[in-house]
């Protein structure tokens, strides 16, 4: 099996694979799997051999999900594996956004040649900034990261408002009871002194911090973006910075236009850049790839349903099909016509596509599986023989 690496992946992840079965390179032309972090895959022509892509991280906006589904490629991510790393950086950013630490540190560096210990005592008053305790923080998106940020900020005595109309049961259980439930974005924009965004980037969330939203915010508001550049309307943010509306903007996604302002702190997309998080993500991604390639099991896919079943028969046929009527009956009839009795079967849909596992002890040939793949509505069929 060939795994093509589109980014540097932590060694602990690569070590998960059995080296007698897998090889890794950035240069393969035909390959079975991709491991990727933030590299953009939208313009990559995927070979017919590609079966799955594992994003060692959370955001999948660098991957063409529709194209992958159409080509029968399963896309995984690693939910929660880098959440603590992002939370810690966001807490640092909350403090940086008020305390003028970055500006002060740069100033001390610029004092070379002077009597620094004297100069700092004389000049430090220009870097006074407020504490976060007692201030209101709005958290947009209460998933793996948003919940941790909200809880940590509450533990530092901030008054926290959370907004997430699609919050999972698990996240809701994990959220501290003292976090206020904001029913709409307007509440976050109007009430909060600090606002942080933790939603995925997609069409529905593009510019979730919009010109209208910024106009509702308090003067001197501090905004944090450690999710994705396109979630904050950059043009509107630049205008608000020019107008003196924004106290500070700390972003993991700096641009030239933003960096002309002294009160913008640009971080070079460091949210997940800790050894712990890189390792967690790589290990989880490696396990997802191996379980899919070797067993046909799907865990943490963003475009297909999860399905984990222990193989109980010699032959397992894995199928990705359109989520339309008669797909299962047409496959079982085709197998029946070849005298193949199905021992176990599972099928689950997710939006436009479904995943089906069929198991049998009757001999199945690669040629038959190839013919299944050619049937209307089937985008991928694969045989696993144990
Ligand atoms: N700076 C960095 O290095 C990193 C950035 N990220 C970014 O952070 C994002 C969030 O990551 P996780 O918390 O791990 O993802 P997650 O999937 O656990 O949480 C996302 C949350 O956003 C909520 N949501 C979706 N649409 C929403 C809307 N319109 N309004 C309010 N809430 C909405 C969902 O219900 C979910 O609870 C990722 O998609 C990625 O873009 C993630 C990890 C590292
Ligand atoms: O891999 C990285 O450094 C980026 C992490 C990230 O942005 C994500 O997980 O969404």
TrEMBL record:
This is D-3-phosphoglycerate dehydrogenase. InterPro entries: ACT-like_dom_sf, ACT_dom, D-isomer_2_OHA_DH_cat_dom, D-isomer_DH_CS, D-isomer_DH_CS1, D-isomer_DH_NAD-bd, NAD(P)-bd_dom_sf. It holds the Pfam family ACT. GO terms for molecular function: NAD binding; phosphoglycerate dehydrogenase activity. The keyword Oxidoreductase applies. It comes from Longicatena caecimuris. CDD domains: PGDH_like_3. Residues 316-386 form the ACT domain. The keyword NAD applies. It catalyses: (2R)-3-phosphoglycerate + NAD(+) = 3-phosphooxypyruvate + NADH + H(+); (R)-2-hydroxyglutarate + NAD(+) = 2-oxoglutarate + NADH + H(+). PROSITE patterns: ACT, D_2_HYDROXYACID_DH_1, D_2_HYDROXYACID_DH_3. Belongs to the D-isomer specific 2-hydroxyacid dehydrogenase family. It comes from the Bacteria. Pathway: Amino-acid biosynthesis; L-serine biosynthesis; L-serine from 3-phospho-D-glycerate: step 1/3. It is an enzyme of class 1 (oxidoreductase).
């Amino acid at each position: 099996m060939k795994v093509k690496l589109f980014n540097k992946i932590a060694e602990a992840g690569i070590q998960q694979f059995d080296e007698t079965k897998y090889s890794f390179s950035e240069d393969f032309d035909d390959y079975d799997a991709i491991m990727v972090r933030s590299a953009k895959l939208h313009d990559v022509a995927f070979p017919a051999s590609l079966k799955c892509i594992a994003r060692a991280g959370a955001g999948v906006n660098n991957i063409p999900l529709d194209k992958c589904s159409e080509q029968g490629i399963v896309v995984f991510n690693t939910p929660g594996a880098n959440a603590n790393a992002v939370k810690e950086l966001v807490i640092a950013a909350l403090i940086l956004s008020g305390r003028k630490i970055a500006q002060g540190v740069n100033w001390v560096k610029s004092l070379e040649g002077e009597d620094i210990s004297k100069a700092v005592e004389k000049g430090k008053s220009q870097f006074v900034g407020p504490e976060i305790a007692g201030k209101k923080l709005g958290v947009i998106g209460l998933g793996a990261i948003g919940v941790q940020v909200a809880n940590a900020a509450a533990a530092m005595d901030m008054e926290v408002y959370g907004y997430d109309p699609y919050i999972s049961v698990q996240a809701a259980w994990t959220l501290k009871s003292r976090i206020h439930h904001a029913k709409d974005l307007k509440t976050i924009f109007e009430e909060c002194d600090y606002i942080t965004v933790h939603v995925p980037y997609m069409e529905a969330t593009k510019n979730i911090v919009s010109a209208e939203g910024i106009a509702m915010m308090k003067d001197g508001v501090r905004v944090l973006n450690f999710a994705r550049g396109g979630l904050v309307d950059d043009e509107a943010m630049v205008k608000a910075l020019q107008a003196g509306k924004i106290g500070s903007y700390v972003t993991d996604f700096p641009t030239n236009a933003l960096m002309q302002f002294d009160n913008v702190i640009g971080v070079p997309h460091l949210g997940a850049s800790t050894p712990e998080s890189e390792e967690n993500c790589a290990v989880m991604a490696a396990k997802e790839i191996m379980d899919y390639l070797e067993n046909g099991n799907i865990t943490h896919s963003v475009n297909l349903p999860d399905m984990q079943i222990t193989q109980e028969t010699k032959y397992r046929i894995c199928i990705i099909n359109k989520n339309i009527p008669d797909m299962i009956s047409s496959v079982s009839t085709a197998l029946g016509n070849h005298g193949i009795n199905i021992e176990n079967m599972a099928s689950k849909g997710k939006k436009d596509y479904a995943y089906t596992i069929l198991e049998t002890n009757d001999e199945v040939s690669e040629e038959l599986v190839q013919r299944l793949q050619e049937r209307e509505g089937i985008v991928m069929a694969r045989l696993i023989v144990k």
